[in-house]
């Protein structure tokens, strides 16, 4: 049985990385997953991220987040670098893991490109959809957990952490457009994208996510595996 791709999305500082690690730990300790694993299904729960889920991607991540050239990076170059990172990531990491039956928990994926480069930078949404298709070969997440948080609140969290990267440094209006992008995506894909309130404490967010994922486990695996 092929694995499952679960993606975390949202504005800067919405808590994706925190919750991705917590979900991995919760799943690994879960009786339900162990039952399924005993049937030889779902060998592993892997975590990965974009940009930077491969060696090539790490180089691209450094460029994307740290570039300080005299001329600013143009939006189309930025778009293509994210697409290159994703193409390598899907081919090298995600598809093989899914083929082995694993669960892949991924920090950002196709919706981030729509929200940041489409809504944020103003690039053509149809072009981004085509490029996402090229980069992924049509691989769509089984579930996308969108941590809903006001852009200003998310930036305030990241700023407590120290120096801002090239994208975090963009003005608040940019991040608010990104936030609207995620809102629009959630309306367009209600079956795939589940909104989770990211403004509450991390324990409450984790409990909500685990409940959503447990419901998916029941739907995705045959009743015979769930006894
Ligand atoms: N990007 C990415 C694009 O523009 N296009 C694309 O196609 C893709 C794939 C990636 C950047 O690239 C852009 C988006 C990003 O700008 P990144 O460093 O991976 O760069 O940035 P983020 O994905 O935004 O990661 P962050 O670490 O900034 O945010 P997270 O992962 O959402 O948040 P997290 O968990 O690290 O938490 C941030 C802070 O908040 C606290 C944490 O302790 C931490 O200090 N926190 C909470 N505080 C209060 N309540 C809660 N519930 C909290 N949860 C976490």
UniProtKB/TrEMBL annotation:
NCBIfam families: DTMP_kinase. It comes from Shackletoniella antarctica. ATP binds at residues 10-17. The keyword Transcription does not apply. Belongs to the thymidylate kinase family. GO terms for cellular component: cytosol. It catalyses: dTMP + ATP = dTDP + ADP. GO terms for molecular function: ATP binding; dTMP kinase activity. Coiled coil: none annotated. InterPro entries: P-loop_NTPase (IPR027417), Thymidylate_kin-like_dom (IPR039430), Thymidylate_kin_CS (IPR018095), Thymidylate_kinase (IPR018094). Residues 8-209 form the Thymidylate kinase-like domain. Keywords: ATP-binding, Kinase, Nucleotide biosynthesis, Nucleotide-binding, Transferase. This is Thymidylate kinase. Its EC number is 2.7.4.9. Phosphorylation of dTMP to form dTDP in both de novo and salvage pathways of dTTP synthesis. One of its GO terms (biological process) is dTDP biosynthetic process. PROSITE patterns: THYMIDYLATE_KINASE (PS01331). It holds the Pfam family Thymidylate_kin.
